[in-house]
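Q:
My hope is that you can spare some time for a protein that puzzles me. I hope you can help me see how the letters and the tokens relate. Thank you; the sequence and its tokens follow:
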Amino acid sequence: MTSTNQRVTGRHVQPIEHTDEETDRESKSERERDECPECGAAGITDEKRGETVCRECGVVLEEDVVDRGPEWRSFDARDKAQKSRVGSPTTEMLHDKGLSSVIDWQNKDANGQTLSAKKREQMSRLRTWDERFRSQSAQDRNLKQALGEIDRMASALGIPKDARETASVIYRRALDEELIPGRSIEAMATGSLYAGARQAGVPRTLDELETVSRVDRKEFARAYRYIARELELAMEPTDPAQYVPRLVSDLDLPEETKQRAVELLEAGKREAVHSGKNPVGLAAAAIYAAGRLTNVEVTQHEVADAADVSAVTIRDRYTELLDADDRAA
């Protein structure tokens, strides 16, 4: 059984008969398909003309190419978002993963005109029913509240999106394993965020989380330990070097000081100075010691305030790091 198609080559139409063996040959790589039959050079696509032409001799390899891009142009992100006909990608940070429709809160039509009073009342009722249908079960309402808390706290602490996604997945797992009933949603959400930030390599201290959480430190610390134990989360000890970039940025120190602080911490780990020590205190001490070694004016109190540790901790730790660096040299 054969079928006859046509291919445009060099402005000439050539009939091509396709057998089963030739069908396999047609599934070659893009590079082989776009080779010029005259000179063997690769072809380039001119999207304005809808043609693929040889870059060397100009022979038309293909014409009437379908343009799969949008027919409109945009000049900034806002303009693109307004003209796009598709929604946002799915995300774990929304209880319905972003698959449902969203009714804009602004009372304006597609042309930007303000809606009439009757239309505004109608849209208000639609928003109410939309919210009810998006979270019908108790589990959906629980997840919606918890993910909202995670997003609020993460925004306040400057935690990136990938860590928020990880925290949302951890809370979803806890909800599926029925770990949430009987416990505070806010505490479990805070514990999930702490675990997600650690797994994503952007840890935050319990003291920082305490400033944004709606429950006290003891409660969400207990929730974190419970989540980590029941879900068997692989939590390695926090690396002090992970705190260095954020503290250096807060103190507006040069890159040289940052690199020297990381080197001091690496030397301290080789000498086992970090064992049993507060990682934030070690990072602060390394930054202060690196500042002295790179002739950058930064005081112990400035570093202590940025890291939320005491100046005494910095004095105790930075000498240990300097001694470890000397021994490792």
